[in-house]
Amino acid sequence: MGYAATVHEHLDRLERHNSEAVERAVGALTTAIAKDGLIVTAGAGHSLAAVAETFYRAGGLSCVRPLYHPDLLPMHGAKSSTDAERRTGLAAEVLAADPLGPNDVLIVFSTSGVNPYPVELARAGRAAGLPVIGVTSGPASSAAPKRSGTTLAAESSIVLDTLVPPGDAAHPAGAAVTAPLSSLATMFVWNLLLVSLHARAERDGVDLPLWRSANTEGGDQANKDLLAHYGKRVPRLA
Asked: Tens digits of per-residue pLDDT, 105-122?
């Protein structure tokens, strides 16, 4: 099987596997948007690529607030980023500087879902009484060392399983050593949420706060009101 076929098969299986969980997640997102809450997204390492996908993206939700700490980004230090997500207490530090609101939803991306940072974020979100959506991989998590004594999936209200295999590589089929799958799978999950959210909003007659591309005619003007509305609560929009 070629690489493209492997990816297509995986994403198709992922969509079928998560159909019920996607509907539950969309319900939580719809409620948050209706209450003018924020969709707070978080991750570490390469899962920050998924966080970037959720934020200030044409066609994406403008009510997204990314949680971020520079120590978690591999480009600020590869080895140190791994150390950071394994550091107990970093989640509390990040949330102290950027606290969750009462009508927010927290989405945590982590393929392995075993390191302290994503696990402690999810636990804090649940303790605050918020819906916590964990985007993680059951197979990868099961095979990984439990550095927190538990997993992101166990601490989440709703789990979206990317089904990424342990080790992440997807090619060649049967003896995979390259072509990591987690970024494609995670971003596909996010877009499944957007598609389902759009369908529900159309059904219920709700206007979703969606960004327009700044590189299209009228894009800047269309985004102006959204920037004014969310700018004070999402400092990274500045």
From this structure: 999 999 999 999 999 999
CA dihedral 119, 122, 123, 124 (to 10 degrees): 120
Distances from the Cα of 92 to the Cα of 9, 10, 54, 59, 119, angstroms? 39, 35, 22, 31, 11
The answer to whether the beta carbons of residues 176 and 167 sit under 8 Å apart is yes
Q: For residue 39, which of 72, 70, 67, 71 has the smallest C-alpha distance?
A: 67
| Residue whose tokens read 């992101």 | 152
Strand residue runs (E) in 98-228: 105-109, 132-136, 158-161, 169-171, 178-180
Asked if 39 and 32 count as a contact pair (C-beta separation under 8 A), the reply is yes
Is 27 strand, coil or helix? helix
d(CA 160, CA 190): 10
Question: What pLDDT digit, counting tens, does each position of 131-151 carry?
Answer: 999 999 999 999 988 899 999
Q: Tell which residue, 186, 181, 130, has the closest CA to residue 158.
A: 130
3-state secondary structure of 105: strand
Whether residue 64 has pLDDT greater than 80: yes
> Smallest Cα–Cα separation from 211: which of 88, 57, 29, 3?
57
pLDDT at residue 17 in the model:
98
**The pLDDT of residue 230 is above 90:** yes
- Rounded Cα distance between 73 and 101, Å, is 25
Structure tokens given for 181 = 């799958």
pTM of structure: 0.96
pLDDT digits (tens, 9 = 90+) for 217-227: 999 999 999 99
User: Six-digit token pair at 88?
Assistant: 């107990």
Does residue 1 surpass a pLDDT of 80? no
